[in-house]
Amino acid sequence: MNFHPYFKMQTIVEKLRYFIRWFLIDTLEPEIALAKCKELNSQIPPLYLLIILNAVAAAYTYRDLAPAYLTIGTLTPILAFTALRLISWVRSRHIELTPQQAIRKLRQTAVLAGVIAALYVSWSFALKSYGGITEQSHVAIVITTTVFGCVFCLMHLPQAAILVMLIVTAPYLVFFLSKNQEVYAAIALNLFLVSLVILKVLFNSYNAFVNLIKSRTELATKHQETERLNRENERLSHTDFLTDLPNRRYFFKKIGKHLDTVKDSREPFTVGVIDLDHFKQINDTYGHKTGDQLLVAVASRIQNLDLPDLEICRLGGDEFGLLFLGAPHTAASVAQTICDRLQRPYQISEMSITIGASCGLAKFPEAGETTHELFDRSDYALYNSKTTVRGSVTVYSADHEAKIRSDRAIESALQRADVYEQFQVHLQPIVAVPDRTITGFEALARWTSPELGQISPDVFIQVAERTGQIQRLTVQLFAMAVDQISALPNNLRLSFNLSAHDISSPETVGRLLKIIKNHHIDPARITFEITETSVIDSYEAAETCLNKLRDAGCRLALDDFGTGYSSLGYLHKLPIDCVKIDRSFIANLDDPISGGVVTSVLNLCRTMQMACVVEGVENLSQLDALEELHCPFVQGYLFCPPMPFDEISESLARSDAIAGLPLASNDKTEHRHRAVV
Question: Where are the domains of the chain?
Answer without folding.
Answer: 16-217, 248-396, 417-439+468-676
